[in-house]
Amino acid sequence: MSTNVLRTTDGWWVVRGDRAVPVDTKAATTAELIADRDAVREAGLSADTGTPFADLVALSPITTPCRVVAQMVNYRSHARDSGFTGDIPPAFFRKASGSVSGPGDAVVRPSHVKFLDYEIELGLVMGAPLPVGTVVEERDLPSYVAGLVITNDISARDIQLTKTQFYESKSYPTFTPTGPYLALLEPEDFAHLLNLRLELSVNGELRQDRTLADMIVRPTQALTLLARFQTLDPGDLLLTGTPGGTALKAPPKPVEKIGALLPPAVKWKAFFKSQAKNPHYLHAGDLITATIATPDGRIDLGEQRTPVTDAQPNPEVSRT
Fold first, then answer.
1. Listed residues 57, 78, 94: the one ending a domain
2. Which distant-in-sequence residues (6+ apart) come within 8 Å of 127 by Cβ?
3. Does residue 148 contact residue 301 with C-beta atoms inside 8 Å?
4. pLDDT for the residue 254
């Protein structure tokens, strides 16, 4: 069975039911904690009754700086929503690790962003170096991946689409809520990955709901493809794509064909005018709830609850 680990300002905790037991470790980073699995196991077996989980304020279990890499269009349902047909070449992009935030921290919408979107994603947390040139087979996955986390790849669609700029549009502070748990896996847990169900709701309305069986490029192939050009180290994070149900969807094919004939400025003005009528984009006051778990509870990454707020104006800037 997997072991759920929580991080707070006081250190690391193993979660057992509604209580949490402190881990006796000097680990300050995620990588150091993964290297101290014996301390995690001892906490899990401890006779200590622990502290009520509700009394703890969870931080992101992924410490930064680290590499944050993401897969693009990696669920069939998301590919359909995005207007893709036929084979989709595997693709990756980077996010700034400064975008990583805690599971209860507010997502802050920058003042210049009008179309803020959500993307629940399963995060793979590396437990061993992945050198360039590595080929990962199914049997090897437990040797490279230490655990799993819930992540939300928050996206500024107006930046992403008009600039074709993934790094900026997905790297603002608070744009990668992560946690609450780091689920450290045992080798036998990996056989259950495809049963994991990703669910995301906004204000109680279910928006995304798929299992990993909807994935196009699964973890072993993704790591092999990534290792063609990218080294990963313990504590690094790979976001594995999002299912369908995001606010952004491709326009109907006839509209898309007409748009292709227009000058870029005219095309985007028309597109975002239509998007302004879409009620699914995020606004201040919204509450995003995300869960990832197997039906039997063997792997359960907890519940992430992130409110949305608007960036506050900088008084220094407003006076200039």
1. 57
2. 34, 143, 144, 145, 146, 147, 234
3. yes
4. 43
What percent of the chain stands above pLDDT 90?
Answer: 84
Task: Count how many residues are written for the chain.
Answer: 320
**In degrees rounded to 5, what are phi and psi of residue 166?**
-75, -40
Query: Residue 237: left if φ>0, alpha if ψ -120 to 50, beta else—which one?
Result: beta
Total domains in the chain come to 2
Average pLDDT score over the chain: 92
**What's the pLDDT at 57?**
97
Among 36, 57, 78, residue at a domain's last position: 57
Determine if residue 4 is left, alpha or beta; phi over 0 gives left, psi from -120 to 50 gives alpha, anything else beta. Answer: beta
Q: Are 36 and 11 in contact (CB under 8 A)?
A: no
Secondary structure E strands in 89-140 = 92-95, 100-101, 107-109, 116-117, 120-126
- Output the pLDDT for position 315: 57
User: Hey, how many other C-beta atoms are within 10 angstroms of the C-beta on 54?
Assistant: 8
Quick one: DSSP state of residue 262? Answer: S
Q: What is the pTM of this model?
A: 0.93
Residue 285 has pLDDT above 80, yes or no: yes
pLDDT (0 to 100) of residue 153? 98
Task: List, as one string, the DSSP characters of 229-256.
Answer: T--B-TT-EEE----S--S--PPPHHHH
> Same structural domain for residues 45 and 171?
no
- Residues pairing with 94 in the sheet: 69
